[in-house]
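Appendix C: a fully annotated inverse folding record. The material below is reproduced so that readers can follow the format used throughout the book. The structure is listed first as tokens, followed by the designed sequence.
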């Protein structure tokens, strides 16, 4: 999930589909609430945790910890950036070396 566009499609498309299903009466209110809770607690936890694990911010075994309230806010900067931490640090180090040599 190194592409930010794919990440946003993965988190927004299910919500759009869920609201559309409710609007055209293919699911009732109880099913809507149940699916919304599944989305918020399980699906988003996995997607956000997977993105952070792919960027080496958290270990893969700690993906489930993203369900703890506030953990998404703690990693908000990393979730909203597209470059992995290692690559970003590598680019920053190269830039610093270049600036130091000038």
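Designed amino acids, in order:
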């Amino acid at each position: 999930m190194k592409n930010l566009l794919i990440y946003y499609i993965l988190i927004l498309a299910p919500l759009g589909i869920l609201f559309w299903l409710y609007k055209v009466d293919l699911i009732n209110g109880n099913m809507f609430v149940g699916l919304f809770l599944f989305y918020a607690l399980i699906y988003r936890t996995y997607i956000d945790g997977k993105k952070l694990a792919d960027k080496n911010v958290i270990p893969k075994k700690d993906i489930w910890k993203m369900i703890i309230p506030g953990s998404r806010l703690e990693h908000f900067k990393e979730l909203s950036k597209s470059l992995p931490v290692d690559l970003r640090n590598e680019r920053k180090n190269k830039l610093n070396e270049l600036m130091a040599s000038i």
